[in-house]
Design brief:
The structure holds 2 protein chains of 2 kinds. By secondary structure, chain A is α/β, with parallel strands linked by helices. Chain A is built from 10 helices and 5 strands, in the order αβαβαβαβαβααααα. A 5-stranded parallel beta sheet of chain A has the order 2-1-3-4-5, sandwiched between helices. In chain A, strand 4, helix 5 and strand 5 form a beta-alpha-beta unit. In chain A, helix 3 runs parallel beside helix 4 and helix 6 runs parallel beside helix 8. Chain B is an alpha/beta fold. Chain B has a single domain, classed as P-loop containing nucleotide triphosphate hydrolases (Rossmann fold), CATH 3.40.50. In chain B, 44% of the residues lie in helices and 19% in strands. An 8-stranded mixed beta sheet of chain B has the order 3-4-2-5-1-6-7-8, sandwiched between helices. In chain B, strand 6, helix 7 and strand 7 form a beta-alpha-beta unit. In chain B, helix 1 packs across helix 11. The longest helix of chain B has 16 residues. The radius of gyration of chain B is 17 Å and the shape is globular. Classes of the chains: A alpha/beta, B alpha/beta. The interface between A and B is medium-sized, with 28 and 31 residues. Chain A: One of its GO terms (biological process) is phosphorelay signal transduction system.
């Protein structure tokens, strides 16, 4: 489980002390931590990939936590990054609002470190599973695209090399697909060779000259007569 | 009634002698008395397939052509022991001795004697069918063999090297009014589609393809011993030769 519970957490809080405490606590847990002092700074960092989970304060200058949350959920690239709201406002209404805005969890300050650790762990697990699923779907997409390419005659078996290294059923499917595509290609090449070999193009004029060299001789004329009489003679013999 | 059948190919290396030997064996297996004459005087070879030791051979086709013996005196029975039934095969070999081949090349011979010899052979041995394994190309003895034949099989490979010569042979044979003429597409790579091959060849020459015989390493290994149809009577390839034999006799 350790693999899926590591990751990079972005701590968004305008209070330097909170940021420092959270950073120390999380780094002790083996997590990588980055920080942002307000919503604007946070969105700038989130515009780049690499953040697996966000710890979000609500009350901040420039851009507050609600706004950050709303913008993240409106952004297809950030929609699935888990967000845990850590707020001083211990009100059910606030928690409901944040969850409605798309927060995965809500923790009132002061937070219980054990509870925070557990929730971060659960969030990272969800993110990890989603990443795995996303990766799987992308690779399924590659196989589907390959099927279309085979139809179009543009398939290169190497385009499935990555998928083919998987040790699951999808990897097996990709390998089978590569093998089949290579066999189809080999068969096409054989047929192309066959069509080439079976293109019977005869230089009729030259063949006619060669025939004439043989048939326009006295020997041949004599043979034709003999053949005719031989065959008629045979028939005569048989009839008697 | 007896029949004369010629197995010919314009180029060498098409498997003509193998085809001849297989057709002969299959006709004999049906109880026929079969004669085979190796008229490929310049490059004899079919005796090997029938296991005839040339060192033990006195007379040959050459001896007959030079007036030293009758053609029946140059005929050797080569019926395979495993053939069974009443069928028999006699072979008139050509000499493999270098001086004999050189003499043929240098002095030639009376081609006309061939025809008389064939007739004598048929009569004295009581043959049902005489099969002539011809020399590639269209020299005088080959033309004579074709002219005397009731049926002609022209063997070719599906290869550009064979196409034009086959056209020449087909045209010449038509001028000699051979009653039955069929093509044999031999040594066809196993990956080729046989029906496609047959269709293209028949269309190109306006001539019936009696059979398409595949070529494979397996077949080469199986046929190295002797006559394929004798050693492998139930093999699908033997059935192709059987079909060819039937067409040549019809």
């Amino acid at each position: 489980m350790s693999e899926q519970r590591t990751g990079t957490v972005l701590v968004i809080d305008d209070d330097p002390t909170n940021r420092l405490l959270l950073r120390r606590g999380l780094e002790r847990e083996g997590l990588r931590v980055e920080t942002a002092a307000d919503g604007v700074e946070a969105l700038e960092r989130l515009a780049r990939p690499g953040i697996d989970l966000v710890l979000l304060d609500l009350l901040m200058p420039r851009l507050n936590g609600h706004e950050v949350l709303a913008r993240m959920r409106a952004d297809s690239r950030l929609r699935h990054v888990p967000v845990i709201v850590v707020s001083g406002a211990d009100e059910t209404a606030e928690a409901v609002r944040c969850i409605e805005l798309g927060a995965d969890d809500f923790l009132p300050k002061p937070f219980d470190p054990v509870l925070l650790r557990a929730r971060i762990g659960a969030g990272l697990s969800r993110k990890w599973l989603r990443d795995v699923e996303q990766d799987y779907l992308e690779q399924v997409g590659l196989v589907v695209r390959a099927a279309g390419e085979v139809e179009a005659g543009t398939f290169e078996a190497a385009s499935l090399d990555t998928v083919a290294t998987r040790d699951d059923a999808l990897g097996g499917l990709a390998r089978t697909f590569q093998t089949m595509a290579r066999e189809v290609r080999a068969r096409e090449q054989r047929l192309e060779r066959q069509v080439g070999a079976m293109r019977i193009e005869i230089d009729q004029a030259r063949a006619a000259r060669r025939v004439a060299e043989i048939t326009e001789t006295d020997y041949f004329a004599d043979l034709q007569r003999k053949a005719a009489s031989l065959r008629s003679g045979e028939r005569g013999t048989e009839s008697t | 009634m007896s029949r004369i059948v010629s197995i010919h190919s314009f180029r060498g290396g098409t498997g003509k002698s193998n085809t001849t030997a297989n057709v002969a064996a299959l006709l004999a297996a049906e109880g026929r008395r079969v004669g085979v004459v190796d008229t490929d005087i310049l490059s004899p070879g079919i005796h090997v397939l029938f296991g005839l030791d040339q060192d033990a051979v006195g007379n040959s086709l050459n001896s007959y052509l030079w007036g030293r013996c009758t053609m029946p005196e140059a005929a050797y029975e080569v019926t395979p022991a495993t053939l069974g039934g009443d069928g028999r095969i006699w072979l008139v070999p050509s000499s493999v001795a270098a001086q004999d081949i050189a003499r043929v090349m240098h002095d030639g011979y009376d081609v006309g004697r061939l025809g008389d010899g064939f007739r004598t052979l048929i009569d004295e041995l009581g043959l049902d069918v005489l099969i002539l394994d011809t020399h590639p190309g269209l020299n005088e003895e080959t033309l004579l063999a074709i002219a005397m034949s009731d049926a002609l099989a022209i063997v070719l490979r599906p290869d550009h090297q064979d196409y034009e010569g086959t056209q020449v042979t087909v045209t010449v044979a038509r001028k000699l009014a051979v009653p039955t003429m069929v093509l044999v597409v031999n040594k066809t790579p196993a990956v080729f589609d046989e029906d496609e091959v047959r269709e293209r060849v028949e269309k190109a020459y306006d001539c019936r393809v009696a059979t398409v015989v595949p070529h494979s390493d397996e077949l080469m290994a199986l046929s190295s011993g002797g006559v394929f149809a004798v050693d492998h009577p139930d093999h699908p390839v033997t059935d192709r030769y059987r079909g060819l034999a039937a067409e040549l006799m019809s």
